[in-house]
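Example 3.2
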Amino acid sequence: MTDLCFVVTRAPQAGHLGQETFDLAVAGGVFDQQIEVIFTGSGLLHLAAHEPLPGHKSLVKLWQSASMFGVERFVVPAAEADRYRQLQASPLTDRIEFLDAAAIQALLRSSREVMVL
């Protein structure tokens, strides 16, 4: 059972939302909560290697460090696999799991709390 599931739907350019999502996820991980992070839609851009906006940290570097805080796996819907492959320069590729819609629904149902950001 997952304690906290974060669904990232907005692009990194949506202000500080990416940083705040990272902060929430690792805070849960530090307190031994089972954390899952699903990237979908424009949220896939969080996984792409790109230059951060002025005044922002590199989200890819932040997500790379998430395993130190207990956030081990990132989920991408299998239906968006082709779109993700266009972003293959991501250093997070080995930690991404592609799940079909039924598996994602099961993950969401088994989560105690779900936050869509």
